C-alpha cells in the first residue's frame, strides 16, 4: 500500500474510478484540469502499482482552510485503511504549509464516509437541506488540524 502524488498520466484512470464510485452522484471530476491547477491537491492510493483510490482537495489562496472535494476507494479495496491513509497524507501536507482547518461536504445518507470523517474527529458544523438527489441533506463537516 502506497500513497503518492498525482501525475498527469493518472488522469484517465482516475476519471474512470471517479465515475465508478459516484455513479448516481454529480461529483464527476476533470482530473486533467484539476491536475494543472495549483490550487488543487491530489493524492493517489496504490496497491501493487495499481491505482485503488484518490483524494482531491482544494486550497484557497490567502486562506488557511482546505476543502476536501472528493475521496474514493475502489470497492474491492475498501475497509483496508486506504481512505485513512489518504487523509493522513493530506493532513501531513497541510500542516507543513501551515493550514489550520479542513472542511468538506457529505451526504447524510453516506454512512461509510460519515463514519470515516467522525473517526477522524471531524465535527458537523452545518447542514444544506435537500442538497443531494432525492432531497437528501448534506452535512458540512470541519476539522482543526
Ligand atoms: C468512504 C470511502 C472513501 C472509505 O474508504 P475506505 O478505504 O474503505 O475506508 P477505510 O478502510 O480507511 O476506513 C476508515 C474508517 O471509515 C469508516 N468506514 C469505512 N467504510 C465503512 C463502511 N462500509 N461502513 C461503516 N464505516 C465505514 C470506518 O470508521 C473505518 O474505520 P474502521 O475500519 O476502523 O471501522 C469508500 O467507502 C468510498 O470510496 N465510497 C464511495 C465514494 C464516497 O462516498 N466518498 C466519500 C464522499 S466524498
Report on this structure:
The protein has helices at residues 11-21, 31-35, 82-96, 111-119; strands spanning 2-5, 40-47, 50-59, 65-73, 101-107, 123-132, 136-144. It is of the alpha+beta class. The two termini are 25 Å apart. The protein has a single domain, classed as Aminopeptidase (3-Layer(aba) Sandwich). The protein has a seven-stranded mixed sheet, with helices on both faces. The structure holds coenzyme A. The site of coenzyme A has 20 residues, from strand 4, helix 3 and helix 4.
Strand content: 35-45%
Kindly report the name of the CATH homologous superfamily. Gcn5-related N-acetyltransferase (GNAT)
Which structural class matches the secondary elements?
Answer: alpha+beta
Describe the global form. globular
Total tally of structural domains: 1
CATH topology description: Aminopeptidase
Q: The biggest beta sheet, please?
A: 7 strands, mixed
Topology overview:
Layout: E1 2-5, H1 11-21, H2 31-35, E2 40-47, E3 50-59, E4 65-73, H3 82-96, E5 101-107, H4 111-119, E6 123-132, E7 136-144
Parallel strand pairs: 4-5
Antiparallel strand pairs: 1-2, 2-3, 3-4, 5-7, 6-7
List keywords for this structure.
alpha+beta; Aminopeptidase; binds coenzyme A; globular; seven-stranded mixed β-sheet; 145 residues
Provide a compact summary of the structure:
The protein is α+β, with helices and mostly antiparallel strands and 145 residues long. It is built from four helices and seven strands; from the N terminus they run E-H-H-E-E-E-H-E-H-E-E.
Amino acid at each position: 500500500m502506497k500513497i503518492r502524488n498525482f501525475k498527469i498520466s493518472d488522469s484517465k484512470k482516475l476519471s474512470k474510478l471517479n465515475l465508478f464510485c459516484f455513479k448516481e452522484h454529480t461529483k464527476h471530476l476533470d482530473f486533467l484540469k484539476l491536475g494543472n491547477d495549483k490550487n488543487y491537491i491530489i493524492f493517489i492510493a496504490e496497491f501493487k502499482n495499481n491505482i485503488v483510490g484518490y483524494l482531491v482537495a482544494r486550497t484557497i489562496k490567502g486562506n488557511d482552510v482546505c476543502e476536501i472535494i472528493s475521496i474514493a476507494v475502489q470497492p474491492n479495496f475498501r475497509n483496508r485503511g486506504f481512505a485513512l491513509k489518504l487523509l493522513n497524507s493530506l493532513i501531513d501536507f497541510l500542516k507543513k504549509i501551515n493550514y489550520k482547518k479542513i472542511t468538506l461536504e457529505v451526504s447524510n445518507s453516506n454512512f461509510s464516509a460519515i463514519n470515516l470523517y467522525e473517526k477522524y474527529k471531524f465535527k458537523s458544523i452545518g447542514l444544506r437541506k435537500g442538497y443531494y438527489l432525492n432531497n437528501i441533506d448534506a452535512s458540512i463537516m470541519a476539522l482543526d488540524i
